[in-house]
Amino acid sequence: MTGTYPSTDTGVASRLLAVDIGGTKVALRAMAAGVAVHERTLRWPADGDAASHSDLLEASVADAVAALGGAPVRIGVAAAPNVDADGYVVSWPNRPDWVGRSLRAPFAGSGAEVLFGDDATLAGLAEARATGSRDLVHLGIGTGVGGGLVSGGRLLTGAWGTAGELGHLVVDPQGPRCRCGTRGCLQAVVSAEALAAHAGATRGLPTTTAELVAGVERTEPWAEHTLDHAAERIARALRVLVELVQPARVTIGGGIGAALAPLPGRVARRLAETARPGRPLPEVGPAVHGPHSSLAGAALLAARGPSLLGGADLFHERSAT
What we know:
Blueprint lengths: L2 E2 L10 E7 L3 E8 L2 E9 L6 H19 L5 E6 L2 E2 L5 E3 L21 E6 H13 L4 E6 L3 E7 L2 E2 L30 H5 L1 H12 L5 H9 L3 H25 L3 E5 L1 H5 L3 H11 L9 E4 L6 H12 L17
Parallel strand pairs: 2-5, 5-8, 9-12, 12-13
Antiparallel strand pairs: 1-4, 2-3, 3-4, 6-7, 9-10, 10-11
Helix pairs in contact: 2-9, 4-6, 5-6, 6-8
């Protein structure tokens, strides 16, 4: 795919590379003068290990650099795993064999500055930039559930730089146990796996996420029940955020979040049912970038540099050159 992406600083004349490393896939976008000249998405092979997947990522990066015709000035990486300052994976519940492995190594031959950011955090920045919203919450629902908080045009990072872990807000204390060990985290309730399990239990037979999406499109009763279940739990989390950070807009994306088209409207209705009198509610809608908000955020990080994650004003233009 080629095209222009005005939400990620099209005035940048340098060669840039954006990479989104997720639990089930990796996506790459190479840009020259703000125009995408190479874009590829590939799924992690089911039979591979961390070493082979690292090799695959390295080869994919090399292909993207070749398409640019020269070394990129900067690479922005939206990462699902937690990565330390040296680029080593600290934790990755979906791919534990990566723990202790360098996520920087596959980029070593690129000749570029490599910057890492949380995938959902970067998605939130991209959504805020694309919508022109200075106060936004983004919720990404896929293999896991992540979030990004933008307040006053700046990323809300918190004392340790990792604020915005919306997937670990507890929405059902008696609910299923999350991989983090806590019961009832939003991630344990509305991730792709959790929604498929809920749909299967309601339907009475094993159900995939693709079948759930198709069931929602056909308004099957069992699928509608799961959709309402997800909307109610998401609204519980947003109810807290409305009081704490007062977002003007909420966007819902990620793989399964973007695929369930009626979900934002259903969430908005549930949220309105619990509104306090006289208190405004945010507009709730689908992510502008659909399932690709993290990749758009990685492109923004490549264009803007480390200041983007350090609290710089998202709407104050800076280039990579």
